[in-house]
Amino acid sequence: MTFDSLNIIKPILESLALEGYTIPTPIQLEAIPPLLEGRDLLGSAQTGTGKTAAFAIPILQKLYSKSMPTKKEKRIKALILTPTRELAAQIQDSFRTYGRNLGLKTIVVFGGVGQKPQTDMLKAGVDILVATPGRLLDLMAQGFIDLQFLDFFVLDEADRMLDMGFIHDVNKVIAKLPSKRQTMLFSATMPPLIEELANSILVHPKRIAITPVETTVEKIEQFVYHVAKKNKVELLYSLLKDKKITSALVFTRTKHMANKVSQALFTKGVTTDAIHGNKSQSARIEALRRFKAGEIRVLVATDIAARGLDIDELSHVINFDLPDVPETYIHRIGRTGRAGLSGVAITFCGEDEYGLFLDIEFHIGIKINVIKDHLFAITPTLQKPMPKPPVMPKRRRNPYERTNR
User: Fold this and answer.
1) Which of 37, 143, 227, 243 is most buried, judged by most C-beta within 10 A?
2) Annotation: CATH topology of 3-209
3) Which one has a higher pLDDT value, 259 or 337?
4) Which residue has the higher pLDDT, 47 or 353?
5) Phi/psi class of residue 190: alpha, beta or left (left: φ > 0; alpha: ψ in -120 to 50)?
6) Is it the case that residue 383 has pLDDT exceeding 70?
7) From the centroid of its chain, how far is CA 308?
8) Average pLDDT for residues 217-240, to the nearest whole number?
9) How confident is the prediction for the chain on average, in pLDDT?
10) Please, what is the Cα angle at 165 between 83 and 277, to 5 degrees?
């Protein structure tokens, strides 16, 4: 089935064709028809399934089909709320790409940058607003954003909103929305709080759950190197001598380590940059642009900064540090091997991380290939827990002992 069969208008089909998109993904096939009919939608789908186009195309088409006001009368008709600045910027790019022939205006607002350019754009009129919760609430409180004419609301990456502590802000935004609207909620997982939120804001929604044709662990080659923590940088540099690693996204646990790894590689002549929460938004966007353009070979990132990054044809993911929870491992390695391409995930397991590694293997249900023949190999062992202090027996009080009560 092609996009032509989904009753999409010609201007959007032309934009899709320019991008080389002809066949919709499963979530686009299932979501676009009911959204065009005006139904609410609850979608369970991970990054990389094509969900942005699944909600962007119907919103663009329905807005275009209405009588469009003049520039001075432009009011916010669609709001897309998303947890991170990087994801917000990418969603804006998608709306502009699919709607290039429609004359609709999409802008993005997020924190970490000056607000004046954003408020100037808001004053000039906007049809579609993409925002992160904090900056949106700030601008609403200052009177720059009015949502009373809203027709469409998208809550994207709802579970990540919960993980990052934004759910209170999300509820504040929802309280300001008109009751009559079309609502779409997307979440990779459905914990109880997200189910409760969905039930409170969606009206008879179409429910969609998308699982990839192949699971992440089946379609990606996975390897582990057992290595002492002090030798991880040298091991990484030695692996990068292999020209098959054309692009690598390297995950560290902390912002400090991301900087340290990036700087160490740079001094050895590797084109690299780091993204994390302490970097300015402009620096993060520029680093991502250079990585996508092939100007840098290695991007070092923390999990929060990398959330929502949409990178095509990524050859390798390298877990410099193991994540604390197995689900994060799956999310990390899922960034390679997308769209039918081959992908490789490499994990460095330090002497104090073997327990975490065993948890990951148990969670994904397979044994990860161990590379034993390398210069920095160590024999993995479970670290013994610190002995607990002895529990002293409670002293039995003499009933005849005087107290100061």
Assistant:
1) 227
2) Rossmann fold (3.40.50)
3) 259
4) 353
5) beta
6) no
7) 2
8) 92
9) 86
10) 60
3-209 and 216-370 agree in CATH topology:
yes
From first CA to last CA, the distance across the chain in angstroms is: 82
pLDDT for res 14 = 92
Predicted local confidence at residue 345, as pLDDT: 94
Among 76, 74, 222, smallest CA distance to 146 is for 76
Burial label, 283 (beta-carbon count in 10 A; 0-12, 13-18, 19+): middle
Q: What is the pLDDT of residue 114?
A: 86
Angle between helices 281-292 and 85-98 (to 10 degrees): 60
Between CA 298 and CA 127 the distance in angstroms is 37
Q: Alpha-carbon distance 283 to 263, whole Å?
A: 15
Ordered by start, the domain boundaries in the chain are 3-209, 216-370
Question: What is the spatial distance between Cα 317 and Cα 325, in angstroms, rounded to a whole number?
Answer: 17
* Class of the domain covering 216-370: alpha beta
What is the CB neighbour count within 10 angstroms for residue 79? 22
* Model confidence pLDDT, tens digit, residues 70-115: 444 678 999 999 988 888 988 999 999 999 999 999 999 998 888 9
Report CA dihedral (192, 193, 194, 195) to the nearest 10 degrees. Answer: 50
